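[step 3/7] fold_predict: job queued, chain A
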Amino acid sequence: MSKRDILIHPDPRLKKVADEIDTFDAGLKQLADDMLETMYDAPGIGLAAPQIGVLQRIIVLDCVKEGEGDPAPIVMVNPQVMWSSEDTSVYEEGCLSIPEQYAEVTRPSEVEVRWFSTEGGEESAKFDKLWATCVQHEIDHLDGKLFIDYLKPLKRQMITRKMQKLKRERARS
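[step 4/7] structure written:
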């Protein structure tokens, strides 16, 4: 396993639609392991492959907070939302590609997702609360969408400018 670098917005790769995965091999398993290590190290509760510069449809998530139980990592290959509730929830979202910026986003409060394991087995589950928000946030990444895309243009521009400044500062150091 190895930790990967997380892309910071604005990066054109974060706005691209990721490709379907059709090869279930050791390389895919390695990618999933690297993504989990990167996510836990960050620390975060979700990570999509485009965030580490890999334009493939794979996400990892684990919404069990430290000290609240054993880790429950989920790896989803080619995830699809099959159903979403009419009821909505508002969560303050953040993103590892947009560090230290948070905003309230409204999403369906429950979703049913179908995906494949790294071995190619089909799986599905219903998610609610933070898990529902997280899985929708990560699937958005696969479609080139960021949580700030849900915000009003002025707020989105303000966050983008902060990220450009952060990238310049990191480039200097």
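[step 5/7] annotate
The beta strands are 46-48, 58-61, 74-84, 88-95, 98-108, 110-116, 122-128.
The first strand starts at residue 46 and ends at 48.
exit 0
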